[in-house]
Amino acid sequence: MNVHTSIPLKNYTSMQLGGPARFMSDVMTIDELHQVIVNAQSRNIPFFVLGSGSNVIARDDGYEGLVVRVRIPGFEVIAEDSQTVTIKVGAGEIWDEIVARTVDMNLTGIEALSDIPSYCGAAPIQNIGAYGQEIADTLTSLEAYDTTSGHIVALSREDCKFTYRDSIFRTDARGRYIITSITLELYKSTPEPPFYKALQEYFDSHGITVYTPQAVREAVSAIRHEKLPDPAVKPNSGSFFKNAIIEQWQLDELLAEYPSAPHYAMDENRHKVPTGWLIEQCGLKGKLLHGMRVNPANALVLINESAASYNDLSLARDKIIQAVQDTFKITLEQEPLEIV
Ligand code: NAP
Question: What global pTM score does this model have?
């Protein structure tokens, strides 16, 4: 286990912004994790757990603490019956490699979550979701290091309090648990329609009528490559805002003015309105704001084209939030967490 000092966070976040972290450590085992955390706690040094850096933003003054990168490996089939296979995966495994592996096993459950840049331990934090699947659908439990007790605890799906792109790890228990492994229950069946429009259109245009996990994975990868900029070429953090979740009365008001506004029913009489559409209606799609490009292919993504700092990003973000607020009276929420 190594502890490095003064590490530029812009090299570790896909938006490529941010000052230095005072300390950074990669841990390969639970024992190493325990050691670095106890050490930091005994010196009153704050810590932040960093995954692939694709859904976090670093600020210009960096982080006056320890950034921990959990690289604990592991892949194990722990149960199987006639319909399901349950796998336990180390937090340090690369998410898409695990998706590929389960697809090769002909299992369904996470194939629509293909190509999401993440480590497995980070996937539950924001309840990653795409094309109608979210990790909450298949995650049965996870293990985490509880930084308040110093012990490993098992948390059930219910304990994680998953909601739309959110979980206890971003809310009530933020900073308390460090996920060390996740357990997923996947199905031996085939993916069932109806599919998201983009997916169905891909199947139709490619003459695909047999829906296998592999077919969904290939379709999702192809669609994502077309619509989402590669962070290695165009620095970005994926969806920069969550989709807007609004009440029935807000939807009624929206539809009165914009009858063709896209919307999808959620639970409890609430509705999802694609934030990309809201931003586009404000005339911001494709615009360059303080060095941040509102992605011309998908206005939900902000690309760091020439931003000099986090400050530029925050000015662009606030401009977008204000425009949507003024036009629709809807308050957008940033999706990536900030390293603070
Ligand atoms: P899109 O197909 O242009 O659709 C815009 C939004 O409408 C999506 O975000 C999606 O919400 C919602 N939507 C579309 N069809 C829906 C349906 N049948 N039922 C319910 N909601 C529907 O989306 P996109 O921006 O290109 O993204 C495609 C998928 O990749 C989405 O699922 C998106 O969440 C996911 N994605 C996630 C991230 C991330 O960082 N978390 C980044 C990029 C893309 P949902 O987002 O709830 O699916």
Answer: 0.93
